[in-house]
C-alpha cells in the first residue's frame, strides 16, 4: 500500500513535582484512521537561569499514555473513593542520558484512532517553600512529538459482496476494512475459493478500529475449512480491519475471495440486506413497544473496477437478539455538569422476560475530562416478596444483551464492562468512572431471581428501579478537604481535585496522612496567637510617641492574625473578608512595618521637616509592588534595602557632623541594635531556607515572634527635647507685647546662639 507520514509537535512545558492530578502536564494528540505506526519522540531538557542546566540534579520523569481520555494515575498509591472504576493506562519512565538533555521513544503499532493523551510529571518532592527570585531554580521542560504512518486507499469490503484477490509472490498480506453499523450482532468474515501450492496457506486476522496485530483474533485457513472467522457483539459505528496474511516461505501466487456478512440483531435469522439504507444513517428510532425494530441494512457505493464484487445472501445461524434501546435526554447545566434524563423516567420498569437497555452519549473531547456517575436504587416494594436481584451492565460502544438469562457477567472475550446489582438487602448501587471514554455507553438492566443453584429468570415480577446518570467535574466535589479545579491544556478542558490538610487520593478521601482536628486547631492557634508578639512593640512605640509606627504594627497584627485564620487548609478556618483582601493587607502590613521601623531608626525629623512624606511614598510604592507580584523577592528586599540606605545616609551625615559614631553610646549598640539585627537575620534565614509545607505552621509562627521581637529592639527611644528658646515673656504695659524669635521659628540658626531679633505687636 501507499504510506503517508504525518508529524505533530507540542510546545515545551515546565514539569512540576506530583502532588495531585492538578500538578501534571497534559498533552492532547489526535491519531488519524488507518494508522499503522505511531512514534512518540519524548524530548526532555533542563534549564537554569535561561541557560542549560548542567548542574541540575537528574530527576526521573514519568509519562502516561491512554487512548480516548486522560490517564487516571495514582503514583502515590493512595486509595480511590468507593464505587470508583479505575481505567488502565501505560506508563513510561525517562532516565537521563546527557547532562542536560534526554530523549525517549515510544512506539505503538496499529494504534487506536482518535484522541490520545499524554500526562507527565516529576516525582514528589519534600515540599520546600522557596522565596520567588531568591535563586535560579532548575526547570525540567518536556516536549512530546508524534510521527504517524498511515495507509491510504485501503480496500473496502461491502457486506454481502465477494471481493476477488490474487496475492503475488512478493506480497505477504492484503488489508481490507468494513464498516459495522449500529444494531449489528455478528460479523462473519470468510475466505472462499482459496488456491495455493499447499491448500490454503493463509492467516485470517480481524481487529476493530485499527489494523490487526500479531495477537488479534486469528484463524489458520490450512486447519479450518471453510475458513470462517465470526465475531459476536462487534463495536457499533466503527471500522473493522481484515488482514489476509500469507504463511512464511510460500513463494507461489495465491488467489482467493473474501466476503463479509453482518447480522442485523433485529432480524437474527437473516443477514443484513445489501440494498436498504441503515437505520443509523436514517436516524430512525426503534419502537419502544416491541422487541424487534426495522430490519435495515447498508447500501454500498459503486464497485471499484479493479475488483469483482458479487452479491451473496447468507443465512446466519446466530441466535443473538437485540432489544429496543431507550435514548436519554442531555441537559447541560455547566462545564462537566450534565444530567441525562430518561423519557418516562427516572423510575424504570425491568420486565422478567427481557432486559431494559439505555444509551448515554458522551460528546467527543468535551465530556472526557469529568466523571461519569451512575446511581441505581431498587424499589423494594415492587418485588412482591420475591428474592429478585436487578443486574446492570454498563458497556462502551455496544450493549451486552446475552441470550443466557442466567448469566450475570458483563464481559466477553472482546468486551469488558462494569457490573452493578441491587436487591432487597442492598437496594443502592453506585458507579463512578473518572475520565470516561467518549461515545455511546449502553446500560442493560435485567432482573433475575435467586435460587438454590444460582440465578434463574423470574416469573410475573416486574422490578422497578430509580436510575440516575450524570456527569460531574470531580467525585463528590472533592469532599470537605479538597478543591475541584477546572484546568485547561490548549483547547482541552479537564477537572481534578487538589487536596489539603494531609488528605490524598483522587477524591481527597484517603486519610492515611490526614491532619487530625486537634493538629489543625493547634496550627491555627500558633499562627494566629504568635502575632500577639506585636503587642510589646506597639506599647514601646506608643510610649516613645511613635504613634504612626504603632498604628502600622496594629494593622499588621490584626490582618496577619485573620489572614492565617482564613488561610488554613482544614476545617478550622475563619474568614472575616475575602481571602485575597486579607492576603494583600497582611503582606502590605508586613512590608510597611519594616519600612516605618527603618525610617524611624534614621531619625529624619530634625533633617527633613516633613518626614511623613516618606511614609506615604513607601505605602504607595509597596501597594503597587504587591499588586504586580505578591510573592516576589524584591517586594521584601527592595523596600528594605532602600530604607536601610536612607538610614545609612542619615547616620553617616550625623557621624560626620558630630565627628563621633552615631548612635553615640555603646549600650545602644550592644543591648539593642546588635540583638535586634541578629534576631531579624535569624527570622529571614528561617523564612527563606528552612520553611517547608510540613513545618510551616511552627516555623512561620517563630518568624512572627522573631520579627515582632526585632522591632522591639530596633525601634529608637523617645526623642529628647531640642532645647529651643520659647517665646519671650510678655511685658506688661499700657497694652501687651508678643515677641517671637523669627530665626528660631524658621529653623535657620542654632537656638543656643540665637540673638534676639523680635517682632513686637502691641
Quick synopsis:
The protein has 762 residues and is an alpha+beta fold. The longest helix has 26 residues, at 633-658. The protein is elongated, with a radius of gyration of 40 Å.
Structure description:
With 762 residues, the protein is of the alpha+beta class. It is 21% helix and 32% strand. It is built from 10 helices and 34 strands. The strands form 7 sheets. Strands 1, 2, 4, 5, 8 and 10 form a 6-stranded antiparallel sheet that branches. It holds the Pfam family DUF3522.
Topology:
Elements: E1 2-9, E2 13-14, E3 25-31, E4 35-48, E5 51-52, E6 61-67, E7 90-94, E8 101-109, E9 114-121, E10 138-152, E11 155-156, E12 161-167, E13 173-180, E14 184-195, E15 202-208, E16 217-220, E17 227-232, E18 238-246, E19 254-264, H1 279-282, E20 309-311, E21 325-326, E22 328-334, E23 337-342, E24 347-350, E25 356-362, E26 371-378, E27 388-396, E28 417-422, E29 428-434, E30 439-451, E31 454-457, E32 463-472, E33 482-489, E34 492-499, H2 517-529, H3 535-543, H4 547-566, H5 579-602, H6 612-628, H7 633-658, H8 666-690, H9 696-714, H10 742-746
Parallel strand pairs: 11-13, 21-25
Antiparallel strand pairs: 1-10, 2-10, 3-9, 4-5, 4-8, 4-10, 6-7, 6-9, 12-19, 12-20, 13-18, 14-17, 14-19, 15-16, 15-18, 22-23, 23-32, 24-32, 25-30, 26-29, 26-32, 27-28, 27-30, 30-31, 33-34
Helix pairs in contact: 2-4, 2-9, 3-4, 3-9, 4-5, 5-6, 5-7, 8-9
Organism: Brachypteracias leptosomus
Family: Belongs to the TMEM8 family.
Membrane topology: Multi-pass membrane protein
